[in-house]
Amino acid sequence: MLTVRLPDDLEAEVDRLAATEHRTKSEIVKDALRDYLASHAQRHSSYELGEDLFGVAESGDSDRSGTYKQRLRQKLGEKHSH
Question: How many Å apart are CA 82 and CA 77, to the nearest integer?
């Protein structure tokens, strides 16, 4: 059970909507909370939205930025081995 205090103007709007739609105030508030929670659950951070793309460019390597130093040492070693 949850009790919520609404400002007078918001409660009046809920009252009008409930009367117009022939529904209870509780039904109106429950539906509003369901909609709000559903929209919040679908939000993702910028990182989550692009996570599969980070470090992947033309090479297709997903760990390219993480192995940069290792690849650089390897290239320098090849260059100086001649």
Answer: 9
**Burial profile 5-28: b = 16 or more Cβ within 10 angstroms, e = fewer:** eeeeeeeeebeeebeeeeeeeeeb
List the domain boundaries for the chain.
9-43, 52-82
Contacts (Cβ under 8 Å, ≥6 apart) of 14? 6, 25, 28, 29
CA atoms within 13 A on the CB side of 12: 3
Which tens digit of pLDDT belongs to each residue from 53-82? 776 566 666 666 677 788 888 888 776 766
CB within 8 Å of 69: residues ≥ 6 apart: none
Length of the chain: 82
